[in-house]
Amino acid sequence: MRVLISAIATSLALMTPTFATAQFAPAITVNDSVVSEFEIDQRVAMLRIFRTPGNLEELAREQLVEDRLKLEALNSAGLRITDEGLRGAMAEFATRANMSLDQFITVLGQAGVSEETFRDFVRVNVSWRDYIRSRFSDRAQVSEADIDQALGQSGGSSSIEVLLSEIIIPAPPPRAQAAIATANRIAQLTSTSAFEAEARRVSALPSRTRGGRLDWLPITNYPAGLRGVLLDLSPGEVTAPIPITNGVALFQMRGVREVPSAAPEPAAIEYAAFYIAGGLSDAGLREAARVDARVDTCDDLYGVARGLPEDQLQRDVLPPAEIPADVALVLASLDAGETNYTLTRANGETLVFLMMCGRTPALGDGVDRETIRAQLLSQRLTTYADALLADLRAAATVTYP
């Protein structure tokens, strides 16, 4: 704290009063809490160090609003991380960059990010993680049958395939409440024709032209935490709204079947994400279509990204449980070389051009069931956390002075 105060005092000595007042003036008000321009600038600088893609200023504003909402919930629950626990969490974060905590703080400082900014970031997110675990762990328990399902073992030598219809409704913050209300209404439908009509009207997915209808797909294509939800549906039933980044997803069950040849469980999924300015605007979609016409494989994207900032193209090989939920939902219906550009980041300002590179099947030997259990639990807790945060956001008063 002394370092931050000293740094601020030094900066203020060099500023004109007008600039200093502007820097520390309220930028956003979340209920009774204020976010300053200084905090936004600090978060932008930190996100840049983390190599975060997208519109960093918009993302910083979104994160800081969410941090204020999380802090309100934590304060209401009377939860606070100890100083020792916070220091340990900061050190753990630094190890991800193969640095000691002191080294990491030095790197942050060289980029203009104060230790206090990093400390606040870790304090909120670690405390929130612990709060979600304590509040929802009983509801998110993982059974042996859940693990079997995740491993694709429940059918023995056979495999389960599902026939679904899908909808994703864009829901950037200004439209979130309206999108959630629409999703809640659609979730009550039991008619396939009614669901198809809604898909044509509100879905952002390419499948909207087919009323959201998908072909038969292995259940293992879907995130492990979603499989049980899908298999619990009767024909015609619709899932509860599934919150995703800047959107909400729904699925309707049209059929389930067992096939004799088991589809291998993917141990890892390789995909590429190319970030395009403009979100779902006409300009953004035109650029996405132009890129789509130029690429047949993920390797082709390197040519498209030549000369652009390094973080504009991201290519990952990840276990399914580590893939962001909205990305995983879209990848579920893609084969290698297929693309999708319906997801967004940074409050809808950045369009995500997704391309499936391929799936690596699990070998099936030496499977660690406890690792699978932990992954399923983590994914379920994330779903609860996203839903709670969406509720907090819908009930909050957020103003931009």
TrEMBL record:
InterPro entries: OMP_Chaperone_SurA, PPIase_dom_sf, PPIase_PpiC, SurA_N, Trigger_fact/SurA_dom_sf. Pfam families: Rotamase, SurA_N. Keywords: Chaperone, Isomerase, Periplasm, Rotamase, Signal. It comes from the Bacteria. This is Parvulin-like PPIase. One of its GO terms (molecular function) is peptidyl-prolyl cis-trans isomerase activity.
